Amino acid sequence: MRRHAVLLGVAALATVVASVSFAQATHPVSGRPIAGVMGPEGARWLERPEREAEEAPTRAVAALKLEPGQVVADIGAGSGYYTMLLSGAVGPRGRVYATDVQPEMLALITKKIEEKKVSNVELVLGTATESRLPDGAIDLALMVDVYHELGQPQAFLRSLKRAMRPAGRLVLIEFRKESPWVPIREEHKMSIHDARMELEAEGYRFERVIDVLPWQHILIFRPGTDRREKE
């Protein structure tokens, strides 16, 4: 049964991936091919019943050790699966900015927060180069299987750095490229090596990896000083 569920999940993801156009660009630092953005059709994949067993999102949020009252950003929030978990973690005194570049995804989150009567989530329509988050406000910025799809990652990381507090954390949750058995297309995986190379080139400081998830790395970075800012 477990193997059957995984195969069904892989088939579903293949269908979603086939429905979007893949970017042809490569990252100028690592040479990594930049994957295409998952469209609104992918919401069913994001909300699949098997997701907790396969990816353990609840365990991932617990590992971040968020505190009540913190301000966090769910970047590329999609259908809002993680947004709801983050909302509960920071509590009513905290705030979650759910950002996406697709209005259709934000519409799905709007419906979800209205149904659940959530009051600490604010929606933000971002762009490929701008987070559109308030300056110096974010304690933790989270990208779940999103960073590898950023069409202009360097520009976006610079924009995001402006939004983060000096002691803030940027967290990437990415499918492990080092594990060939993880049933995800290769362009939708990230290695620790490539992630570090790309983010450190923009002045982010690598802190650690949390490996508690079945298929993904949790990569923790801090906003350091960009080399260009020193010149």
Task: Write the topology of this structure.
Elements: H1 2-18, H2 43-46, H3 51-55, H4 57-63, E1 71-75, H5 81-90, E2 95-100, H6 103-116, E3 121-125, E4 138-144, H7 153-163, E5 164-176, E6 189-190, H8 192-200, E7 204-210, E8 216-223, H9 227-230
How is this structure best described in words?
The protein has 231 residues and is an alpha/beta fold. The protein has a single domain (2-230), classed as Vaccinia Virus protein VP39 (Rossmann fold). Helix content is 35%, strand content 23%. The protein contains nine helices and eight strands. Strands 1, 2, 3, 4, 5, 6, 7 and 8 form an eight-stranded mixed beta sheet that branches. Strand 1 (71-75), helix 5 (81-90) and strand 2 form a beta-alpha-beta unit. It is globular, with a radius of gyration of 17 Å. Mean pLDDT is 89; it is low at 1-23.
